[in-house]
Amino acid sequence: MPKLYTCLWTARNPRSCWKIKSRVQSCINGWTQKLHNVIKEIRHVFRETCEKNNCHPLKSAATSLVQFPLWISLTFQLRNVCGFHTASGYGWLPLIPDFTSQGLTMACTSLVLPFSLLIIGLANVEIAHLRRPPPVQSNSVLKSWAYKSTRIVGWMGNLIIFYCSTVVPKALAIYWVTSATHQLFTHLLIMHPKVRQICNIWLLPNEGTEPYRRLLNRTMAEYAVVRRLFGRK
C-alpha cells in the first residue's frame, strides 16, 4: 500500500517530485564532495606524519612478515613428519612421552606443550603491556581502559588457545609453540637500540637506551613472583 500511495502522489505532483529528487541529489553530491575532501586531507596528514617521523604502518607488521618463511618451512616439515611413527633417540626430547609413544596426528596426552604455549603466549602479552608508554594526563582514563582491555583480550585468547592445544594434533601444537617462541624472540630483539637504529625505528621515550633493564625493573615492580626469584622484597 505505501508504494501505491507513492505512485499516485508522484503521478499527481510530478513537479514537486522532481524538485524533491533534485534537492536530495544535490545534498548527496555535496556530502560526497565533503567526504572526498576529508579523506584527501586525512591522507595528506598521514603522508606528512610518515615523512616527518620516518615511520610507516608496515613497519609495525614487519615482525609478522618475518615469520612467513618460518611458517611455510615448518608447515611442510610437519606434514612430512606426521606420516612417520616417532621413536626415542631421533631428535625428540625424551622428557616428552607424547613424541615417543604416539604420532604427531594424535592429541597431546601430557600438558608440556599446552603449558609451554600458554607461558610463552602470556609472556608476549605481558611484554607488550609492560612496554606501553605512560598515558597522557588529559586522556589517562581512556588510555588506561584501552590498555586493560587489550591485556584482558590477550589473556583470554591465550587461554582459549591453551584449551585448543589439548585437543588438536600435536603437530599443530608444535607449530603454535614455535610461532609464539619466534614472536617472543623477535619482540626482545626489536627492543635493542642498535637493531632499532639499523631498522630506522625511533626509541621509545619510556625505554631510552636501556630497554631491557627498564623492562626488568618494571617487571619486578609489577609481579611479586619475579621479586622473590631475584631475592628482592
Secondary structure: number of strands: 0
- The first-to-last residue Cα distance is 78 Å
* Quaternary structure of the protein: single chain
Radius of gyration: 28 Å
Q: Helix count?
A: 12
Percent range for β-strand residues: under 5%
Average pLDDT value?
72
Largest sheet: none
| Order of helix and strand elements from N to C terminus | HHHHHHHHHHHH
- What is the helix content? over 70%
Low-confidence stretches: 1-11
**Global geometry:** extended
Tally of discrete structural domains = 2
Q: Provide the structure class.
A: mainly alpha
Describe the structure in your own words.
By secondary structure, the protein is an all-alpha fold. It folds into 2 domains: 2-48; 59-190, no CATH class. 73% of the residues lie in helices and 0% in strands. The protein is built from 12 helices and no strands. It has helices spanning 2-12, 14-53, 57-60, 62-65, 67-81, 97-101, 112-130, 140-165, 170-190, 193-198, 211-222, 224-229. The longest helix has 40 residues, at 14-53. It is extended. The chain starts with a helix and ends with a helix. 8% of the residues are buried. Residues 1-11 have low confidence and may be disordered. Keywords: Membrane, Transmembrane, Transmembrane helix. The chain crosses the membrane at residues 104-125, 152-177. It comes from Calicophoron daubneyi. This is Mitochondrial inner membrane protein COX18. InterPro entries: YidC/ALB3/OXA1/COX18.
